[in-house]
Amino acid sequence: MPVDVVRQRAVQDRVHAAPDILHRRRESVEHPFGSVKQWMNPGAFLMRWLDNVRAAFSLTRLAYNISRAITLVGVPGLIAAVRG
After folding, report:
1. Torsion over CA of 27, 28, 33 and 35, rounded to 10 degrees?
2. pLDDT of residue 79
3. How far is residue 14 CA from its own chain's centroid?
4. pTM to 2 decimals?
5. Is the pLDDT of residue 47 over 80?
6. CA angle, 54 as apex, 50 and 55 as ends, to 5°?
7. What is the per-residue pLDDT across 57-84, written as a single tens digit (0 to 9) for each?
8. Quick one: which of 75, 32, 79 has its CA closest to 57?
9. How far apart are CA 44 and CA 65, in angstroms?
10. What pLDDT score was predicted for residue 68?
C-alpha cells in the first residue's frame, strides 16, 4: 500500500476517534489566515514571481504578528519585550 494512503487512513482514524480535534484546529489556525485574507482586499498577491510573493507575505505576516502582540500585551509590554 502506498505511503500516502497509509498516512491518510491514519489521519482519518485520529479524526474519527476524536472529532473535536479538527474543530479546535480550525478555530486556532483559520483565524490568522482569515485576518490576513481580509487585510489583502482582493485576496490575491499583487506581486509576481515566488520570491516577491514570499517577501509580500512576510511583511503581511509581520504586520499581523505585531498587531496581535499589541492586542495581547499592549504597546508598553511590546516595547519592554523588545528591549529585553
Report:
1. 80
2. 93
3. 22
4. 0.56
5. no
6. 120
7. 888 889 888 988 999 999 999 999 999 8
8. 32
9. 20
10. 87
CA distance 16 to 18: 6
Judged against a pLDDT cut of 90, whether residue 18 lies above it is answered with: no
| Closest by CA position to 68, among listed 76, 78, 55, 59 | 78
78 in Cβ contact with 69 (< 8 Å): yes
* Residue 43 backbone class (left: φ over 0; alpha: ψ -120 to 50; beta: rest): left
- Across the range 50-60, mean pLDDT stands at 88
- In 3D space, the residue among 66, 76, 78, 79 whose CA is nearest the CA of residue 32 turns out to be 66
Characterize 6-40 residue by residue with b for buried, 16 or more Cβ atoms within 10 angstroms of its Cβ, and e for exposed: eeeeeeeeeeeeeeeeeeeeeeeeeeeeeeeeeee
Pairwise CA distance, residues 61 & 69, whole Å: 12
Distance CA(70)–CA(26), nearest Å, equals 23
